[in-house]
Amino acid sequence: MRGLINEIYLDDLREKTHRGLAGQLARGGHAGGRAYGYRSVRDGDISRLEVVPEQAEVIRWIYTRYAEGWSCQRVAADLNARGVKSGFGGTWAVSALYGSPNKGSGVLNNELYIGRLIWNRSQYVKDPDTGKRTRIDRPRDEWHIEERPELQIVSHSLWLAVRERMARPTRQGGNAGKGARPRSLFGGLLKCGICGGAVVATSGRHYGCAARKDRGPAVCAGVQANRQKVDQRLLYAIREELLSPSAIAELQETVKEVLAARRREAAELAQAARARIAELDSEIARLVDAVATVGISPALTARLQQAEAERERVTAEQDSNVPGGAVIDALQRYRKLLADLEQSLSTDTDRAREILRRMIAPAEMVAREGQVFVEIETGRAAIAVGLSLGLVAGAGLEPATFGL
Ligand SMILES: [Zn+2]
């Protein structure tokens, strides 16, 4: 029922949005959403797009360089170095340039630059349950395409030159057949010590600052380190740290503390339960006496049943208050986590990453005196592991620095 109502609601909303846009477009307006290179101007009750000459220059420059064989990285870096602002006033990133040819996103794929206004490609609809806006892609035959020569910025030959380069295989300088890079172990788990952004696998051989890679040195000077070395040394350091006698001793200490606290708690609960059972026993005895003296009555029967039911419940609860095995096997689970890590390192990178993420959460990659370091608060590692075992571990270890 609820699903059906949602369906109807979404259809209705789509219909309304659609009609509103169609009306705007029929009168020469635009469908909302402003692309780089245009400004929106009010014209009576509709808004029209207008070319911004300086931005149109930038677009032609981007198309020309890309068609000549520049990489999107180089284009973005050059724009940022010259202080050219992107559409939202920020810096240029590769994604803003290349985007997705299928979705028509990214500067190099926007057909508006050849004067072709496409709308109804996708629509954002609001889910009435979650309030979230979701993008729905429409099939190509539902697209609405309009020619708007006054909005053309890039010549058809330049547009085609860019298409031609995109279709070329990667090794010939194009983007076709570019597969997803194999996942790296620590990419995204480290952050750049300069800009605080993500450190990712910038190539098959290196980890580096993502901002530096996508936006160029004008945005972040960046750090870079050999992937193989980082993987090896960081894993070594993590193993050493987690299996060090002091880490094990600390974990054991914590387990002992938690166990002791649970036992104390259980003892208190048991004592309270015993006291309550004694009370109930004497109450039941009094009630039985009363029945013997004055005979059975509905009120006495009800009270007796109530007291007996509570006695049963308290007794059952008392048995379940005995400390269980959950904490006792914490050390075993700790060892298992490490064993899992060892095993998944060679077989399942995603699983290994997940384990590592919990262990090293905020590790920073910093460059200092010509060296790159990854800084991890080892106390954190103990906390992260502790939490994953359901323990709250206090940690006060010194931060450790591992040279790379
Ligand atoms: Zn950075």
Automatic annotation (TrEMBL):
Keyword Membrane: no
Domain Recombinase intervals: 35-172
Spans traversing the lipid bilayer: none
GO molecular function: DNA binding; DNA strand exchange activity
InterPro entries cross-referenced by the UniProt entry: DNA_bind_recomb_sf, DNA_bind_recombinase_dom, SSR_resolvase
Keyword Coiled coil: yes
Coiled-coil stretches noted in the UniProt entry, renumbered to this chain: 248-351
Keyword annotations: Coiled coil
Protein name per UniProt: Recombinase family protein
Annotated organism of origin: Denitromonas iodatirespirans
